[in-house]
Design a protein that fits this description.
Largest sheet: 10 strands, mixed
Shape: globular
Structural class: alpha/beta
Strand content: 15-25%
Site (Important for catalysis): 142, 191
Number of domains: 2
Function: Catalyzes the oxidation of 3-carboxy-2-hydroxy-4-methylpentanoate (3-isopropylmalate) to 3-carboxy-4-methyl-2-oxopentanoate. The product decarboxylates to 4-methyl-2 oxopentanoate.
Pathway: Amino-acid biosynthesis; L-leucine biosynthesis; L-leucine from 3-methyl-2-oxobutanoate: step 3/4
Helix content: 40-55%
CATH architecture of the largest domain: 3-Layer(aba) Sandwich
Bound molecules: nicotinamide-adenine-dinucleotide, 3-isopropylmalic acid, manganese (II) ion
CATH superfamily of the largest domain: Isopropylmalate Dehydrogenase
Family: Belongs to the isocitrate and isopropylmalate dehydrogenases family. LeuB type 1 subfamily.
Subunit structure: Homodimer.
Length: 358
């Protein structure tokens, strides 16, 4: 069969270590299913600043553009935290999303039954929780004009938030399309009681909703949503929201699954090309200890198979293997109740590839 080219950007902190486990999954998929992957590594984030003087070198961007999909670890760390904007790893991440046109970030939070005890929430509250956050990824306050100025009382900083009708329409359509494949419920999250961008957001979502009469649409203010996610998580199906709200709400939703180390993501544009990365960051507090949870990254590979390659058999094999390994009681530190029995990153990865079946 056709060879799929995957650009691999490990990044910083725990990024390379979780990506390493995902690469084992790619290899196991080749053995089991006969699919062929060509992987090529690129420098990205803090390590690219150190080696090339920029977080997103042109050759890395070119590599991604020449690939069918991108597998990304995470970027950032204290070493670069006081750098100017251009020399921050996070600026590279925003740049790659923008340059590749990846306006839609899909972050599924499905609760594995056996991990209910790993969550800080009560198991009965989590019962039946299976939601997806659809986060707008290339607009809003992240990408608006930013500057400092001299105000009446000294220095001021300004971040501007802008959304166009077209940007809202395309992310709304993505979310409605996803809702149609699931429970046909969509919660659109905004702050329309205060923000002009949110008032436009709500208007446009209402207009797009006319194309999807079967989808039950709820508008919910972001502060209320943050609360309802903990109060009645199982009542959500698809949540669509702007860039910064989506960033925050998806980390909150991660705790429904037991750990941020469980949350995978897909960043998509108009075509089948996608960038796949865990929702978590470079976790400097545990970097280098080989104790990070690789499941978020491994499940991101399953998303890549489903959404970019259409390899549904291999995606299911990964998802089933993760569930089987967790059901057998295997845990990394972040999801372990008895931390003394926790597995290392590579032990978890090895168990998952051993459990993969055709
Ligand atoms: P973080 O997600 O890196 O870590 C938050 C907490 O979760 C930490 O205690 C960490 O140890 C834990 N954690 C995260 N992933 C884990 C995993 N796989 N297994 C076990 N525990 C895990 O968020 P942060 O500490 O706010 O940010 C650290 C750095 O990462 C910052 O530089 C930030 O800008 C960057 N960041 C990058 C991305 C990305 O590359 N997509 C995402 C978020 C944060
Ligand atoms: C994420 C991260 C990034 C974001 C940062 C590192 C720029 O938190 O991918 O969720 O805010 O989008
Ligand atoms: Mn985030």
């Amino acid at each position: 069969s056709e060879v799929k080219k995957i650009a691999v950007l490990g990044g910083d902190g725990i990024g390379p270590e979780v990506v390493g486990e995902a690469l084992k999954v790619l290899q196991k998929t080749e053995e089991l299913f006969g699919y062929k992957f060509e992987t090529e590594h690129g420098l990205f984030g803090g390590i690219a600043i150190d080696e090339k003087g920029t977080p997103l070198p042109q050759e890395t961007l070119d590599l991604c553009k020449s690939a069918d999909a991108v597998l990304l670890g995470a970027v950032g760390g204290p070493k670069w935290d006081n750098n100017s904007k251009e020399l921050r790893p996070e600026t590279g991440l925003l740049g790659i999303r923008k340059e590749l046109g990846l306006f839609s970030n899909i972050r599924p939070a499905n609760v594995f039954d056996c991990l209910k005890e790993a969550s800080t929430l009560k198991p009965e509250v989590l019962e039946g929780t299976d939601l997806i956050v659809v986060r707008e990824l290339t607009g809003g306050i992240y990408f608006g004009e930013k500057f400092r100025r001299e105000g009446a009382n000294g220095e001021e900083a300004v971040d501007t938030c802008a959304y166009s009708v077209q940007e809202i329409e395309r992310i709304a359509r993505q979310a409605f399309d996803i809702a149609m494949t699931r429970g046909k419920k969509l919660a659109s999250v905004d702050k329309a009681n205060v923000l002009e961008t949110s008032r436009l957001w709500r208007e446009v979502v209402i207009r797009v909703a006319e194309e999807y009469p079967e989808v039950e649409l709820e508008h919910i203010l972001v502060d209320n949503c943050a609360m309802q996610l903990l109060r009645r998580p199982s009542s959500f199906d698809v949540i669509v929201t702007e860039n910064m709200f989506g960033d925050i709400l998806s980390d909150e939703a991660a705790m429904l699954t037991g750990s941020i180390g469980m949350l995978s993501s897909a960043s998509l544009g108009e075509g089948s090309f996608g960038l796949y990365e865990p929702v978590h960051g470079s976790a400097p507090d545990i970097a280098g200890q080989e104790i990070s949870n690789p499941i978020a990254t491994i499940l991101s590979v399953a998303l890549m198979f489903r959404l970019t390659f259409g390899y549904h058999d291999a995606a299911k094999s990964i998802e089933d293997a993760v569930e089987e390994v967790l059901n057998a009681g295997n845990r990394t530190t972040d999801i372990a109740v008895d931390k003394s029995k926790a597995l290392s990153t590579s032990q978890m990865g090895d168990l998952i590839i051993a459990a993969m079946k055709k």
